[in-house]
Each structure stands twice: as structure tokens, then as C-alpha cells.
Amino acid sequence: MISRTMQQQVNSSSIIRAMFEEGKRLSALYGADNVYDFSLGNPNVEPPAEVKQAIMDILNEENSTTVHGYMNNSGFEDVRGAIAASLNQRFATGFAADNILMTVGAAGGLNVIFKTLLNPEDEVLTFAPFFGEYRNYVQNYQGQLIVVSPNTKDFQPNLEELKEKISPRTKAVLINSPNNPTGVVYSAETIAALVDILRAKQEEYGTVIYLIGDEPYRELAYDQVEVPYLTKYYENTIVGYSYSKSLSLPGERIGYLVIPREAADYENLIAAANIANRILGFVNAPSLFQRVIAKCLDAQVNLDSYNRNRELLYNALVSYGYQCIKPEGAFYLFIKTPLENDLEFCTLAKSKNILIVPGTSFACPGYARIAYCVAYETIERALPGFEALINEVSWASA
Ligand code: PLP
Known about the structure:
Elements: H1 4-11, H2 15-30, E1 36-37, H3 49-61, H4 64-67, H5 77-91, E2 100-103, H6 105-117, E3 123-127, H7 133-139, E4 144-148, H8 159-165, E5 170-176, H9 188-205, E6 210-214, E7 237-242, E8 255-258, H10 266-279, H11 287-294, H12 303-320, E9 323-324, E10 332-336, H13 342-350, E11 354-355, E12 357-358, E13 367-371, H14 376-397
Parallel strand pairs: 1-11, 3-4, 3-5, 5-6, 6-7
Antiparallel strand pairs: 2-8, 7-8, 9-10, 10-13, 12-13
Helix pairs in contact: 3-11, 5-11, 6-10, 12-14
The protein binds pyridoxal-5'-phosphate.
């Protein structure tokens, strides 16, 4: 028999994954061209050419026992040094190799940091709407995820409610910008106001509250919008980064944590995060891909392709009468569902072979997420369905 906690997981397994499976089923029935699957954040843009070249160069030129061998739990020192130098150049920070811990993607990094920080019942605050896996990652270490309700005006975090919800048990505040599912980038003013609150609350309770930035979409920002670099605002910051989206490498499971020297209890944090990486069973991040990304630090995926999709989808949906914020980053659009019940709306959309994810799975009912990391033609073909959907709903309620 499986454990009670895993039984619960099996029962409530991810709705996004379920949609993905549904997409495959519908494709088999109606043909892939007639199914519009906007359910999963799986990049459809090729990794940059530098990635393939780097893989071949490494395999041809480097010592294969090093490339494929064990290493420090934190990762190759030269790779971590190269990442630190690249961050310093881009953001005028002062990191060294010791501040970087290579991880198994953003998911691995978040699990390492929660294992490092959380005692049972410790609280992690996050802002709705949020990536649903956060709940699992916090529960893995018996923490409590406390959700600050969404600010549906502009989807910047609701700071008034944050103030009320921080307690002496608050160990960390977790933010994700550019955001999944809204595509919103948290502004410099928002971050400055947020960290003022954290400082005041640390003072009031005599505690340390870490700010954790989950940043797999940092590089996917449009129209030159600035994505503030969090360690410059607040000393007790930990940044989780991933190459899943920025280099289109989600299956390769590669990312890193930044733990700055200024962070409270720095020496212990680093030591514990290293051990967590090992004892969670990751041991170390994939070695070939550590070496690959060190050669691709300036490489970028073709953002124009996502941007074209964003413009097409946003302009069309708004012209049909949908309400949504124009996303500034990531590859998601978050619409207010024309039916109040987002689950019903997504089921209706499915009847037109359009697969989108209800806002409820991001703790934001009444909305739905459209992942536009798909072929441009898929969006073109899906648009008549989106138009018919909103028209049907408004006739029904007229
Ligand atoms: N955080 C957010 C907000 C995400 O959207 C995702 C993946 O979609 C992850 C973390 C996990 O990313 P990774 O593939 O790097 O583990």
C-alpha cells in the first residue's frame, strides 16, 4: 500500500498534466491539426544553435570521465564561477562561485531551499495566482503554504494582504516574476514596497524572512521591460533560476540557486543547501548540461517567435471581447473567463478542441491560462473557436 500523503497526491494529481493527456487523446480522435492544445508550458521554440554546438564540442574535446563523473554537490566550480561572472556583468552584483549552487531545474532548486529552511509548520507566503506545484514543494517538508489573494486589477502582488498574513512563523515569501500564469512582471516599485514590508516585519517579530525569487521566465520579457534583480533590493534573498524556458531545455533539468553572502546565516545556508541537494537524491545537477550552459551564457532563444504569438493572441482575444492584461513576460495569457465558473468554461472550450487551464488550479477562480508556446498557425486556427466561445456564452446569458 502506498503512503497516505501519496494517496492524496494520486487523487488530486495535476490538472495541467491531465489536460495534456486529454490533448493527446483528442489528437488521436480528430487529428493533431484540429486540436488546439494551450495547456502546457513546454517551449516550442528550438534551443539556440549554440546549445547543440556546445554539446558536440564538449563530447569531442573534454575528458569524458570529468564530463560524466561525480563532482561537488554544488556543481562544477568553473561553471559556477562563469555564472557568477555573467550575473555580475548583467546586474552589477558581486557574486562568486560560492554563491551559486547548480540544481535540477527550478523545481529541484525550490525543493533544495525549502528542505534547507523549513521546520514543520513553518509558513511560506505566496501570491495568487501561482504555479500550483508550490503547494507540493512546501508540503514536501511539512511547511504551510499561505496564499495571499489575487489583485485582479493588475496582478501585481496584493501587499496590503501580505502585511496582514505575515506572522512570526513566516520563514519565506515566494514570488515568481515574470509570472506563471499571468505573464505580469513585478515592477521595481512593487519589489521596493514588498521588501520594506519584509524588513518591518523582521524587526517587529525579531525573525528572518527570506525572499525567494522563482525566475525560470526571467529571460522571457518583452518590449524591454525591466525585471528587477531581487538581491539588489533585499539582503535575505535567494534566487532560483532555470534554463528550462530561457534555453528551451526543460527535459535536461538544469538550473541554479543564488545564495548571496549578505543573506542571514549564509554559511549554514550554503552548507545545508549542498547537503539537501545530495540527500534529496539529486546528488548534483546533470553534469553534461552544467558544462553546456557554461558555454551558452550569452545565448538566447528566439523571443520574436513568442512575441508574435503574444501579439496575435492578445489582440484577437481583446477584439472578441475577452478581458485580460497584456502579458509582459513568460508565454502565458490569463483571461477572465466569460462564464464565472472557470471549470465550466474550460470544459466548454474543450468541446471546441481548445485546451486551456482553469484559473482555479492557480488559486484564481474565474480566470483561465492560455499557454501560447505553440505554433503561430495553431493560434490562427484556434481563433474562430475562441470567438465562437465568447459569443455563445454571451447569447446564453443575454
Ligand atoms: N516555477 C514556475 C513558475 C514554473 O512555471 C515552472 C515550470 O513550468 C517551474 C518552476 C519548474 O521549472 P523547471 O523545469 O526548471 O523545474
